[in-house]
Design goal:
The protein contains 16 helices and 4 strands. Strand 3 and strand 4 form a beta hairpin. Helix 5 crosses helix 8. It has a 4-stranded antiparallel β-sheet. The protein has about 475 residues and is of the alpha+beta class.
């Protein structure tokens, strides 16, 4: 059995006082988040722009480089306006919300970037055989990080660049969300216009069907003719059913893009006559250099080069030596020894040289990606332009006058049928032509609208008649989020 007591190894009174204080100082309690299912459902179902501060929405859209259309107070109250749906997208679009939280996270992380290393304190109890002991404490701090040099400066630069990356990412999310919600609104409006046209044709068919059924019941209509009526009734019912499904699909697209839940009253509002016709002036299109400077997608690629540059400098900072300064003191009633402490650490070149070369290669690759993205963007602009020109030709070909002509011929055929002057073969022919032409004008309208939106998206800021904004470098937005 050992001769000394186990109590000798218990913490001394000095430790018993110090340890609780250290543990309390290290506590951090994050705020609780209410995430009950009922609360989440209520939050989504009660989304309403009337509860959103207009200034807050405008504040979200303060990124000058992408010329976001700023919704007015009147827009926020009227779902028939484009600004209403833009405001919904800026506020609730999932990609925008994720980018906004990512920016908040990057700003918060930047506040801690380059912070000094933790102060080091360690205590050693030297216990002599006679029972007396000496408590020795050592405290030190890393000097280069305390002075904000070397790795600390590189971390701050990287964090600032990451804030810029998150800012440009928010630009791109807002840019894409605005076009996504407008495309969905156009698609939904076009489906509803087709549904309305088919509904009118369906009423005409049902009215004529009553007369034809009477003739069939009295044996005055050939069996083949009645079968033709039945077949066209079924075909029209199937077309109406398909449009009903397409309408729900378009509503769900608009719901996802805007953040409004299915069944929200605003989703029942969009119609084709609410969307004004816009012409793209080729003279106002941004040139190639401006395209590279201001298009959100290309700005993301350009900031990736800045990120790679900051990462390269961070790797290079690993070659700095680590210098720790501190003191060593003894806690004993009889003697209080005091001494300085210096700790130096030099990294082996092999520990960072290969990483430095790899970071240089990644930086060179980012520059190549900018060139490739620029070339790809030019190609997409040319393709979108060709699509838009084709849409203009198609819209001119299928003009409203053609629609009115088809409708007039159909009405004339029905009138002759009611007077008993129209052969069934002629009525069938006019019905089939009307059913085939009822969507042509709306198809052309939707094609033109979507192609215009697509071209504006590919051209980037400056492609529409909006307030002029000077081209800016991505770095100009950093102060907006770090002040």
């Amino acid at each position: 059995m050992p001769s000394h007591s186990w109590a000798r190894f218990l913490p001394r009174p000095e430790f018993q006082i110090l340890m609780p204080a250290v543990l309390l100082a290290a506590c951090a309690a994050p705020a609780a988040l209410n995430s009950q299912p009922g609360d989440i459902v209520k939050s989504v179902d009660q989304r309403d722009l009337s509860h959103i501060d207009v200034g807050e929405v405008i504040e979200i859209a303060r990124l000058e480089a992408i010329e976001l259309p700023l919704p007015s107070a009147e827009d926020l109250a009227d779902p028939a306006q484009k600004g209403y749906w833009q405001a919904c997208a800026y506020t609730w679009n999932p990609a925008v919300r994720a980018s906004r939280r990512g920016l908040e996270s990057a700003v918060a992380l930047a506040e801690s970037a380059g912070a000094p290393s933790p102060m080091s304190f360690q205590a050693m109890l030297n216990q002599a055989s006679g029972g007396s002991g000496l408590l020795v404490g050592q405290s030190s701090v890393e000097l280069t990080r305390l002075l904000g040099m070397g790795p600390s400066a590189a971390e701050r630069e990287l964090a600032t660049t990451e804030v810029l990356e998150a800012t440009v990412g928010l630009e791109l999310a807002l840019w894409n969300a605005g076009f996504a919600v407008e495309r969905s609104r156009v698609t939904l409006a076009a489906v509803r216009a087709r549904y309305s046209a088919l509904d009118k044709l369906n009423r005409d068919l049902r009215e004529d069907r009553v007369r034809l059924k009477i003739l069939n019941d009295h044996g005055r209509l050939p069996a083949a003719a009645w079968e033709g009526v039945e077949a066209r009734t079924a075909a029209l019912d199937a077309a109406v059913s398909r449009l009903h499904v397409l309408e729900k699909t378009a509503e769900s697209m608009l719901s996802r893009a805007s953040g409004l839940p299915m069944g929200h009253p605003s989703l029942a509002v969009p119609a084709w006559n609410q969307i004004p016709h816009e012409n793209l002036d080729a003279g106002s299109w941004p040139q190639n250099e401006e395209l590279l400077a201001r298009h959100p997608l290309l700005r993301v690629r350009r900031i990736s080069l800045s990120i790679a540059e900051a990462q390269l400098r961070e790797v290079a900072s690993k070659a700095w030596p680590s210098i720790r300064l501190g003191v060593e003191t003894g806690l004993n009633p009889a003697t209080l020894p005091f001494a300085g402490l210096l700790s130096l650490q030099w990294p082996f070149p092999s520990s960072w040289r290969g990483k430095l070369e790899a970071a240089e290669a990644r930086r060179a690759r980012q520059l190549e990606r900018i060139e490739e993205s620029y070339l790809d963007q030019i190609a997409r602009v040319d393709q979108a332009h060709a699509t838009y020109e084709n849409a203009l030709i198609k819209h001119h070909l299928y003009s409203p006058s053609m629609e009115w002509g088809a409708e007039a011929m159909w009405r004339a055929s029905r009138a002759r049928l009611h007077e008993g002057l129209e052969p069934m073969s002629e009525w069938f022919d006019f019905f089939d032509k009307r059913l085939g032409s009822v969507h042509l004008v709306m198809d052309a309208w939707e094609y033109e609208q979507l192609s215009r939106i697509g071209l504006q998206k590919e051209l980037g800021p400056g492609s529409s008649n909006s307030r002029p904004v000077q081209p800016s470098e991505p770095v100009s937005e950093v102060t907006l989020w770090t002040q």
